[in-house]
């Protein structure tokens, strides 16, 4: 891939992506196929993350009780841990990105099937997050 193509690929909009998905999806066009593929993709993402810890070992998961006994929500947010130690190796990162890409493909297909704009979904969620900040509590 040349540099111009790579730079153009970095500027793909959600709308462009959704339109391309609608153009190429053939085998799993049914909404039933799409929603079950979304579920399957989610499972493969989870498995790839777990395999990064259990097979590769590039990350470790050190889970413990989260402490919510702080005075403010900001202090709580700052004290919470994600329980991941280490960094993904290139092989694990590539696999997880591949699985996430497939998930996004089927999410875009679901949006298209239901005549929902993926761009609108993302923009609405962004506005909600931006407005509510840490009070979003997700």
From TrEMBL:
<protein>
    <submittedName>
        <fullName>DUF1573 domain-containing protein</fullName>
    </submittedName>
</protein>
């Amino acid at each position: 891939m040349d540099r111009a193509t790579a730079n153009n690929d970095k500027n793909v909009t959600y709308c462009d992506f959704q339109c391309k998905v609608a153009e190429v999806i053939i085998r799993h066009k049914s909404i039933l196929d799409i929603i079950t593929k979304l579920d399957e993709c989610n499972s493969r993402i989870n498995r790839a993350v777990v395999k990064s810890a259990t097979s590769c070992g590039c990350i470790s998961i050190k889970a413990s009780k989260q402490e919510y006994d702080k005075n403010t929500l900001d202090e709580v947010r700052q004290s919470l841990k994600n329980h991941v130690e280490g960094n993904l190796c290139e092989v694990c990162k590539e696999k997880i990105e591949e699985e996430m890409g497939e998930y996004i493909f089927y999410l875009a297909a679901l949006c298209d099937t239901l005549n929902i704009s993926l761009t609108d979904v993302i923009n609405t969620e962004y506005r909600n997050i931006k407005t509510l900040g840490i009070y979003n509590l997700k």
